[in-house]
Design a protein that fits this description.
The complex is a heterodimer of chains A (286) and B (115). With 286 residues, chain A is of the alpha/beta class. Helices cover 29% and strands 17% of the residues of chain A. In chain A, helix 3 links the parallel strand 3 and strand 4. Chain A is globular and about 95 Å long. Chain B is elongated. The chains are: A alpha/beta (286), B alpha+beta (115). Strand 1 of chain A pairs antiparallel with strand 6 of chain B.
Chain lengths: 286, 115
């Protein structure tokens, strides 16, 4: 049959012409899978736009949310202590652990220590008898939620079952830790009175992120020109709702009020409840 | 210098996108860093350029939008524009503004190429 018009003639068309049946004279290939994607989707060109609208801190925030749920399930109230270097975070924690121990029905306590290098701070905490995990960030300027998750899994508080207080002492830095949610109930900003009352204006993001401001080393006030009222006013410019406590770990002044604040806030965290662990670890092992 | 960590997170978002919808390189990266997001834009750009070689971001044009901060004044009730958290209300002079916009740090869009 004629392949051109289907006329059924083995010799040719009725008009007498003979069809040449053979290779088609054309060149070139069509290849739809040569790009890196190995596929071509109609409507997409080799250059295309991907709309993401992705929060840069989204991955950390998801881990922080998991930490928050994990802490709640264990009845653990976590506090993220942030300050510049040398504000006295570790000294305050040592005094806090001692004061908590003196309370009736003292809660279990554990500490995650963040520093770029050394285990000095964890050693100071362990000397009080409280368990501590040191996280060295290397060149990192802050703790992130993944580091806290790994450290919490190694603490006895994690297998304790009766709740407790977890203190996360962040890397001494008034800038970077403000942005990273670790799953804490509250960030507590610690500002020593030797640092100058205008720190809340110089580092507003940190004081905006904190729920409580601890003005520390207040035993030194008689020797300084530090204006307490002005400092508090500056802090409330950037965070009208921030609470303020005056504390000295060295003299013990204000430590009881700070411990009261912690216990009242932690009571709001609720009792531990049964939960399913989606991740692979065994309770009670370090 | 948390901008280096943030640049690493941006690269991770780009790599995750490439795993879902394969492409060979990013021609243009469009970010949004609000005035109140706590990010130093020049430092973020420097960090992105530092980590880009050898990655999907190599040679990419980096555009960073900086939407202004907005806040609600608790004293006069107005929604106002602010450049930082320490400013008073431009309308009534009171402090204690509650930020409402310009807080986000996002990867908005990628223009990608397959070859």
């Amino acid at each position: 049959m004629c392949v051109v018009c289907g006329c059924g003639s083995p010799e040719g068309h009725r008009d007498g012409t003979v069809e040449q049946v053979g290779p088609v004279a054309a060149q070139g290939d069509l290849h739809y899978g040569l790009g890196a994607a190995r596929v071509t989707v109609p409507g997409m060109t080799a250059e295309r736009a991907l709309r993401l609208e992705a929060d840069v801190l989204g991955a950390n925030d998801r881990l922080a949310a998991a930490n928050r749920a994990h802490f709640a399930a264990h009845g653990v109230a976590a506090y993220n202590l942030v300050s510049g270097p040398g504000a006295g975070k570790t000294a305050l924690l040592c005094a806090t652990i001692g004061a908590l121990r003196a309370r009736a029905q003292a809660p279990a306590v554990a500490v995650i220590e963040g520093d770029q290098q050394t285990c000095h701070d964890a050693d100071r905490i362990r000397a009080t008898g409280a368990p501590a995990i040191q996280v060295n960030t290397g060149k990192g300027c802050h703790l992130d939620a993944g580091m806290v998750a790994a450290a919490f899994g190694r603490l006895p508080l994690h297998g304790h079952g009766e709740g407790g207080l977890l203190f996360i002492e962040n890397v001494g830095n008034l800038v970077c830790p403000a942005m990273w949610d670790l799953g804490e109930r509250a960030k507590v900003a610690i500002l020593s009175v030797t640092e100058g009352e205008d720190k809340p204006l110089k580092y507003p993001d940190m004081f905006a992120a904190a729920r409580l401001l601890v003005l520390h080393k207040i035993d030194l006030l008689p020797h300084l020109d530090f204006d307490l009222a002005r400092c508090v006013a500056y802090a409330r410019r950037v965070n009208p709702g921030i609470e303020v406590l005056l504390v000295s770990a060295r003299s013990g002044q204000g430590v009881d009020a700070w411990v009261d604040w912690l216990l009242q806030d932690a009571a709001l965290a609720g009792a531990p409840h049964a939960h399913m662990h989606a991740h692979a670890h065994a309770h009670g092992t370090a | 210098m948390h901008e280096l960590s943030l640049a690493g997170s941006v690269l991770k978002i780009v790599e995750d996108a490439a795993a879902r919808e394969p492409f060979r390189r990013v021609k243009r990266l469009q970010l949004e860093a609000g005035a109140l997001a706590g990010v130093e834009v020049q430092a973020l750009r420097f960090a992105l350029e530092a980590i880009a070689p050898g990655t999907l971001l190599a040679g990419a044009q980096i555009d960073i939008d900086e939407p202004p901060g907005r806040a609600l004044c608790t004293a006069c009730g107005q929604s106002v524009c602010i450049a930082s958290r320490v400013e008073p209300c431009p309308a009534c002079g009171a402090f204690g503004l509650r930020p409402t916009a310009g807080l986000e740090l996002k990867v908005r869009e990628l223009i990608v190429q397959d070859d």
